[in-house]
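Feature request, filed as a ticket because there's no other form

It would be nice if the structure record came with a short human-readable summary line next to the tokens. Right now we just get the raw output. Example of a typical job, pasted below so the devs can see what we mean:
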Amino acid sequence: MTTRRERRTQEKDTMNKNVAFIVIGSLVAIGLIGSVVLHVLRPDTVAAFMPNLITLLGLIVTAAGTIYSLGKLDQKVDSVHKNTNGTLSALREENDRLTRENVELARRVPAGE
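Raw output as currently delivered:
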């Protein structure tokens, strides 16, 4: 069973991915429509437009990969935050307890041994 916070995080990640892919799809569609229009209206300018279109598509694919990776990283950070409760207080308390125990044991041991 998922908590409300986990559902909110999952919805946020899904929303970001959907928005990113909609934007990327729109840009690709605009580029392809522009290419067709140039082929019809001014065939002599297509040679200059196509490298720019390919560069734009490469940038868009790179942006999509980055957005996806950031979403995965955010999930990992949320997982670590959930597992540690945002702090390392339990670990520090355990270390302090063990340190006190070691000091107490060291006092009990005679100095000659």
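Something like this underneath would help us a lot:
The CA atoms of residues 102 and 108 lie 10 Å apart.
The radius of gyration is 29 Å.
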